[in-house]
């Protein structure tokens, strides 16, 4: 029979899962308290938060929320990063921290109801941010219009330069 504390924790995890765009699972063994604080800070800057829960309680919360089973990802000590904003930004924050500190291991996670392994999470972290993608899209859309304006203005500019050159020649003479 489950105890009251575990039932409350499962409900707390379910509440955390409710408003997230992604959840990443990391292994934090070997990190000092200072390093964990720095990790939490960088995760907060990416509009996410980190929590440490028992794997069995996370399995129950995922099952209750009808989210995918994470299987072997939920083994050993795990910390869970709940991304409420851009999932790429939080994955990037974890990956950047893992580059600086080899003790942090990305185990996997889930996004949009799909479970991902460590390699997929690292690939997601390598994607450009939402803002960068929007900027690239707008640049791609506006580029043909800018070229068309230049083509249309070309003859007028050429004519204006020719008239200016003729005026300069006449004033010099």
From TrEMBL:
The keyword 4Fe-4S does not apply. It comes from the Bacteria. InterPro entries: Ribosomal_uL10, Ribosomal_uL10-like_sf, Ribosomal_uL10_bac, Ribosomal_uL10_bac_type. Keywords: Ribonucleoprotein, Ribosomal protein, RNA-binding, rRNA-binding. GO terms for cellular component: ribonucleoprotein complex; ribosome. CDD domains: Ribosomal_L10. GO terms for biological process: translation. GO terms for molecular function: large ribosomal subunit rRNA binding. Coiled coil: none annotated. Part of the ribosomal stalk of the 50S ribosomal subunit. The N-terminus interacts with L11 and the large rRNA to form the base of the stalk. The C-terminus forms an elongated spine to which L12 dimers bind in a sequential fashion forming a multimeric L10(L12)X complex. Belongs to the universal ribosomal protein uL10 family. Forms part of the ribosomal stalk, playing a central role in the interaction of the ribosome with GTP-bound translation factors. This is Large ribosomal subunit protein uL10. The gene is rplJ.
């Amino acid at each position: 029979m489950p105890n009251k504390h575990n039932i409350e924790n499962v409900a707390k995890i379910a509440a955390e899962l409710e408003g997230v765009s992604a959840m990443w699972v990391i292994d934090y063994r070997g990190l000092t308290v200072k390093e964990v604080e720095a990790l939490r800070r960088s995760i907060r800057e990416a509009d996410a938060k980190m929590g440490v829960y028992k794997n069995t309680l996370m399995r129950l919360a995922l099952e209750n929320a009808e989210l995918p089973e994470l299987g072997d990802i939920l083994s050993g000590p795990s910390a869970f990063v709940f991304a409420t904003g851009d999932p790429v930004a939080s994955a990037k924050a974890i990956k950047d921290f893992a580059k600086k500190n080899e003790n942090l291991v990305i185990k996997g996670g889930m996004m949009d109801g799909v479970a991902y392994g460590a390699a997929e999470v690292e690939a997601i972290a390598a994607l450009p941010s939402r803002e960068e993608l929007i900027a690239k899209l707008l640049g791609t859309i506006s580029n043909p219009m800018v070229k068309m304006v230049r083509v249309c203005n070309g003859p007028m500019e050429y004519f204006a330069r020719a008239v200016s050159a003729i005026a300069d020649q006449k004033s010099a003479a």
